[in-house]
Amino acid sequence: MRVAVYCGANAGASPRFAEVARELGAGLARKGIGIVYGGASRGLMGVLADAAIAAGGDVIGVLPRSLGHREIAHPHLTELHIVDTMHERKARMLDLADGIAVLPGGIGTLDEFSEAFTWAQIGIHTKPIALIDVDGFYQPLIAHLRNCVDAGFLSNERLESLAVCASAEAFFTTLTTDAPAREVLPRYAALTAKS
To answer: Which residues constitute the domain of residue 28?
Structure first.
């Protein structure tokens, strides 16, 4: 089983971002759950991959050819898929994964999350999505999504399908919980059961 992890090509201002990326990468590897990510060796992407590889994990990268000079490919991945466009990157990552975790990141990470969340809304996939809300990083986005519900542009059920975890540890609890509060959580539990 694999989780697609969306995260920044930069490390971000807070050391907590890298700390949680490291915990997530190592923790997934220890649980025997593979990672699919953007393929870069720098930023939170590099931290995530390094931690998973060091823990013996299976790490697949998907890198657009046009970003090779900016997001330098990680040299020690299990597999590296080179694609032509950002759209292909997002589609390939989702195709290779059974669920999605979103760490902090910038516009690229927001784009990846938005497309996966949209595809879930229109029925292209039913894979669970979790925001890893390090130190409240995603609270403004969650507030915006709530505003979309209030304004009639998003169903409350779709918003409720989004798991929000404050840490890697909380995400792992989400993976293994037997009594989830939301529909998305049993699908994450199924990931662990099959791995």
So the answer is: 2-109
In a domain? residue 71: yes
Radius of gyration (Cα) for the chain, nearest Å? 15
The model's pTM is 0.89
In a domain? residue 128: no
Q: Which residues contact 155 (CB under 8 A, 6 or more apart)?
A: 149
Do residues 188 and 99 lie in contact, with contact meaning Cβ atoms separated by under 8 Å?
Answer: yes
pLDDT per residue as tens, the chain (195 positions) = 999 999 999 999 999 999 999 999 999 999 999 999 999 999 999 999 999 999 999 999 999 998 877 778 999 999 999 999 999 999 999 999 999 999 999 999 999 999 999 999 999 998 999 999 999 999 999 999 999 999 999 999 999 889 999 999 888 887 765 433 343 343 444 444 443
Q: How many structural domains is the chain composed of?
A: 1
Q: Is 59 helix (H, G, I), strand (E, B) or coil?
A: strand
